[in-house]
Amino acid sequence: KMANKNSSDKLTKANIISIVGLVLLFSFTFLGHSFKSGGEMGWDILVSVAITGLAAFALWFLVKAKGAENQLEKWRIIEISTLVAYVVVVIPLSFCGGVTNFFAANADKESYKDKAHNDIAKIDSVFSLYKNYEQNAVVKTGSGLRNSVGIGQSRSSELVNFMENNSINPTGMSVNNFEELQKGYVLGSQYEQYYKQYKVERDAIINTIDSWNVIQIPSQAKLIEDLAVQTSKWLTERSASAKLPLVEYSAISQAYTITLSNQVKQYQVDGGIENLEFRKAIMSAGGMNISSILFLIIVHVLILLNYFVAYRTFSLGLTKNPNNDGGVTL
């Protein structure tokens, strides 16, 4: 006995399987594109919705065309055109959406973890550079000032003005107090607090990457770059907050002189942000790999299953109900 076409109005197993296929397509496109974009969530959502929506619309249109109850030749042409469009447009788009990035990165995750550790090490080294440079800068300024206040030493008018403006008396104790004050600006409690907070964020990122939580990997990659930028900015500003000019003896004027600018360094990771590897690596991972190809083939078969088993109208009778092939009820 021919199956009743009205049964197609109910939620069938084929409907559910196609929905599962669409959910898988959306989920893995979102995950894949998050790897491809390096954690730009807005674009990840937009691309995932667009590709999945296109697949869902094409499926709906295919089923509608296959079961059309009028102008059968016209709908047959539309059905074939839509199926061709699905194969030529929707399927390639799903490959371009980032699924290949996801599978490629996960297949070689240990090497990507190493890149993340290398990036963090580069940021760590900025703190080491900062500490060494600022300690030396403090010592240079303090030594120069101490030498200038020695018995019988002459000081340039610029140096005298600097000392007066900063309440430095021509004594070793006063210079020592000024030196400690400047050291506090660059290496004191605020620096220690910032470094402690950095360590917390750094360890959290490393722990997440080492556990390879695929949902969070792209956002952590973005966080590494953000942390590098934030660290560079904060340390550079902190360096500029202290008054650490060079005070040196001039043989020409036979007096101690002062530079017009402080010892300030522009801090950044070695080679700049562009030299960080991890985020760029997961974004460029990809290429056709067997895992992503097989996965997407299965997903599209699941999606199109509802079309494959849908009722087809073969001829229109004089009654309201057209003849159809009976379809397959799953």
Q: Which key features would you list for this structure?
A:
330 residues; mainly alpha; two-stranded antiparallel sheet; 6% strand; disordered N terminus; disordered C terminus
Overall shape: rod-shaped
Number of strands: 4
How many helix segments? 10
Largest sheet: 2 strands, antiparallel
- Main-sheet strand order equals 1-2
The chain-level mean pLDDT equals 89
Helix content: 55-70%
Strand and helix order: HHHHHHHHEEHHEE
Low-pLDDT residue spans: 1-8, 325-330
The proportion of residues in beta strands is 5-15%
| Sheet/helix structural class | mainly alpha
**Spatial separation of the terminal alpha carbons:** 16 Å
Assembly state: single chain
Q: Using the CA coordinates, give the radius of gyration.
A: 34 Å
Q: What secondary-structure arrangement, pairings included, does this model have?
A:
Elements: H1 13-37, H2 41-66, H3 72-107, H4 109-148, H5 157-165, H6 172-187, H7 189-211, H8 217-241, E1 245-250, E2 255-262, H9 278-284, H10 290-308, E3 313-315, E4 323-324
Antiparallel strand pairs: 1-2, 3-4
Helix pairs in contact: 1-2, 1-3, 1-9, 1-10, 2-3, 2-10, 3-10, 4-6, 4-7, 4-8, 4-9, 6-7, 7-8
Give a short overview.
It is built from 10 helices and 4 strands; from the N terminus they run ααααααααββααββ.
Describe the fold and architecture:
With 330 residues, the protein is mainly alpha-helical. The chain has 10 helices and 4 strands. The protein has helices at 13-37, 41-66, 72-107, 109-148, 157-165, 172-187, 189-211, 217-241, 278-284, 290-308, and strands at 245-250, 255-262, 313-315, 323-324. The strands form 2 sheets. It has a two-stranded antiparallel ribbon. A two-stranded antiparallel ribbon has the order 3-4. The longest helix has 40 residues, at 109-148. 33% of the residues are buried.
